[in-house]
Amino acid sequence: MTTVGLAPAVSTCDVSVTLEAPFLTRTTEIGGFGVDTPLLVDGEGTPYIPGSHVLGKVRHALKHLAMLLDEDPRGVLFATPWSDFEEAWLGGDGDREGDTPDLVGTHRGRVFFSDLKLVKSDVAPDRQVDEKPKVETSSWLRTRIAIDPLSGTALDGALQVLEDRWPSGTRLTFEGKLRLLGTTEAAKTARTTLATGLDWITQMGGMRTVGFGRIVESHISKLKGASPAVSAPASPDRIGYELRFEEPFCVADGRRSQNTFESTDTIPGGVIKGALANALAAVVGSRPSPKTDGGPIILGPAFAQMRVSHAFPCGGIAHGRPQRPPESLASIAVVDRDANGEVTVKRELIDLALVDGPLLVNGYSPSFSPDFKSESPSAFVGWPDVKYELRVRTAMDFEARAAAPAKLFALETVRTEGLVWRGDIDLSGVSESDRGDLVQELGTIVADGLVGIGKTGAFAEMKLVPADAPQWEPNADGRLVLTLQTSTLLRTPNGTYDEAFADLLPGLRLIRSFVRERVAGAQFMAERYFRGADYKPWLLTSSGSVFVFEGIDASGLAGWSDRVKEFLDRGLPFPQSVKTFWDIPEQEEEQWQRCPWVRNAGYAEVTADSELHRRLAPNSGTQKIEIVGGLS
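-> structure tokens emitted (632 positions)
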């Protein structure tokens, strides 16, 4: 194994900021009755300062210092010119003259502040009050009102009620983490510069111009020592991984509007690989490439060849990785009549994957997931109840020190308290002689966690654990039910699923399917994957889609068991028609350059013959089943 230049990619410091009340950071949630501006708190009710706010304040402070030092040509504050430090550590500010929507080739910053949470609330010694307020229970209100410039009296309808939990002068201490992506020596230099920027800041939070949030003291500790490499499982053919987050994350899966990003509750394998690639670039100075020859295994073709599955949310240590609810689940009406003749209608879920035709149950037509109301199919597959919160951000005008116009946007973030995200890393596509070294190198890189996940740049502790390959044997009834666990590029706009599976499983016949589809693309995808070519948005088959097969000849499923097992291990490959239509290379390690939905990035994951299909099949003993047609 060659590990020259490899080291943990994340360096961590403790951050502490003490403010003097009044203090306010505004939440997007509705406050109590009559409160216009409620205080921002986390899921446990603790006030906090968003890490993005801290980073923005530090960035503007450093920019101000650089202007005062005329870009610091002598290196008094910055080890390199300010523009180089800003580009290397803070990334582009997204507000430079001449910026275009083309984001190809840019890189994000390598400085990540966590949310700073309130840990202590003390009344200042020179401002004692009769009773020290308790943060957990006290809710103080403060009012402001606009003055009519003509009459000099209070303006009608301009009273503002603010939530203010502490009397003026109370000292509030907030603590969090600063994480730097890069070598230890580079991180030490960056830490010194960032600490100077934090010391230059005089205020945090809202209401700056009326004296809110005055900083009394701030501190960034020295870098903590690097952790030993994450221990790797004994068998390197397939390993599992676990992610434990300390903060909410946003992995955008679409836009609700032009400036609002919706988050998925899963973390795609491509996002994990992207964060790993950024970590390697920060430590070694280059990203993984199939053309790399020599050096660590992870920098060569093995990086593209290893398959990282999506990380699914789990309820805790005792809960395994869940499955997606199948689209074959349907809701039926069940009528109950008590002794008094009172009628109650409730809904129950059944599974129709193995039913040979349309049917009525108890005289009613089943309804499927698009029409579900109170039904909760996630409970049948162990999918936890994930909570969300909305975070609103805006760019700040450096000159005006106020919100820049038309720069507001919102992120729907996933709350991570009490949850762990689990996935697998399959190495069957990697040379057998390289697998052990690759796992050891992964353990070194993620020893101090993985940072930069999603749009919020979230941090997670990453642990490598043993994992078993999926087990499957052909059913005696000669049928196979495949359920997609992640989005899959299976057919062209003019193609059919019969054609797709005739290519992937030519010995089996598709007899029915329960499918949802969506189109993916838009401006960034067009710039990234279709530059100079016709733009063709991708037609994706959504997770949960179900396909039912039977054998064409006497050999049935047995003759195709090896192919099915390969799909369970590595996901579905692209059908030839898909590769031709979207111009996707034949070599798997090159496909990610032309298409993001590759199986080695966690897409096209499938499960086979879930016990759910039989456990929830219609029961003729308790339900009146009436088949009303032939095969669907």
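The CA atoms of residues 406 and 460 lie 32 Å apart.
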